Amino acid sequence: MEPCLLIRGLSRQQLHWGLFPQYLKEMSDCRILFEDLPGFGKRLDRPSPNTIEEISASLAESVTQQAGKVNLIGISLGGMVALELARKHPQKVNSLVLINSSFKPYAKFHQRLKPSAYSAVIQAWLNPSVKESERKILKLSSNIRASDSDLLDEWVNIRDQNPPSRRSIARQIMAARSYCFNDPKPIENILMLASKKDKIVNPICTENAAKAWGIPPIIHDAAGHDLSLDDPQWLAQKISDWYKHIGV
Hints:
By secondary structure, the chain is α/β, with parallel strands linked by helices. It has helices spanning 20-28, 52-58, 60-64, 77-88, 109-112, 118-126, 130-141, 149-161, 166-178, 204-213, 227-230, 232-246, and strands at 4-7, 32-35, 70-75, 93-99, 190-195, 218-220. Helix 1 runs parallel beside helix 12. 43% of the residues are buried.
């Protein structure tokens, strides 16, 4: 089976995937690869571009230098990056999984970022205290583990090890806000998942794009925006079952 390349979203890095990669490896027997976005994690020393196209281009070698094809999995902003990689390198991408992602023209601004989340988002990413900032991010992105103190400590430690700049976060927000995908779906094998109770992004963003591309979306009834955190086993199972269905 071709390897799975996992891409995280806004201000996150590969260490934030938690247990999901382990479950996916066990269920699908695929080799798991990770890639951080510029300005975060192992790419902390690189400035973040302010367009999805440029962010995607910075990751292109992770796809093009593989001996065969790859299976892309992206969450939120990471889904936009994965989608752009599939558009630019369709011959190297076997499948694409988009999790709680959103992009124009299939979603409006108030759907891509719920008005009820505006204040919380600002407080989460601009709070001067790392622990309070991560606490607010956790509360905003999770419905099931929002009060997990051990997880909060883990996230604080991750951020202390690789502290991203506010400039990089701001440039990622700019990139996500302006991203538009007007082309037909870039490859045949696409799976789209969303969380019904996502506090950040309206699941209609996934539903609209899925309808336009003739894809039946899979919706989780209880999880928050970070679906891979709230129910990693469910997510891995859905993806693994789909891989078997399409013959990956």
